[in-house]
Write a structure and sequence with these properties.
mainly alpha; 4 helices; 0% strand
């Protein structure tokens, strides 16, 4: 009985504490997801600024100028063809990198959404389970309480009936008196 009373008094506060920790974990995960999504949104512009096409172009121009001064025109044309190929390759690499970043961003966002749905589902299941456990505990306590009261009342009635029967037997039983002492004992003296 004391254990059930202890459970009834402590279970709601424990459930509330657990619910608060789950809410905090959900908020933390949600904030981390928002930070990740914001970071992924700015990543393509950061990559573009990190590549710095102006710096690449200035290096290429300087290289072309030096080549033009050192070599003849056909050699310069050949160098331009090589540089053009390198630029095409760099452009293709840049395009491929941008596509892979876009794919990673989309897959990360979908994984984050899936994780949020799973967390929300877990929190909902935990809340339902705690509500069901509380209802089951209340029903069990009420059943045990009624059963205990009924048993105490039945035992009290049985003890009362036995006591009443014993009292009636005692009250209506014939009185037994000790036999009177006779004077026989005096004559023997």
């Amino acid at each position: 009985m004391q254990f059930l009373t202890l459970l009834i008094h402590t279970a709601p506060s424990r459930l509330a504490t657990e619910r608060e920790s789950l809410d905090l974990a959900l908020r933390t995960c949600s904030e981390a997801l928002e930070n990740t999504v914001a970071r992924l949104d700015t990543l393509p512009s950061e990559v573009a600024s990190g590549i710095s096409p102006e710096a690449i172009a200035s290096k290429i121009n300087e290289s072309l100028r030096q080549q033009f001064q050192k070599s003849t025109l056909p050699q310069t044309a050949q160098a331009l063809a090589v540089v053009a190929g390198q630029m095409k390759k760099t452009g293709a690499d840049f395009q491929q990198t941008a596509v892979s970043i876009n794919i990673a961003h989309n897959s990360a966002a979908s994984e984050a959404n899936r994780a949020i749905r799973e967390i929300e589902s877990s929190v909902t299941r935990a809340a339902k389970a705690s509500q069901q456990a509380s209802a089951d505990l209340t029903a069990t306590f009420i059943h045990e309480y009624r059963w205990s009261i009924g048993m105490i009342a039945a035992v009290a009635m049985l003890v009362g009936a036995l006591f009443m029967m014993a009292f009636d037997n005692w009250r209506y039983s014939p009185m037994v008196f000790p036999p009177p002492q006779t004077e026989v004992h005096k004559s023997k003296r």
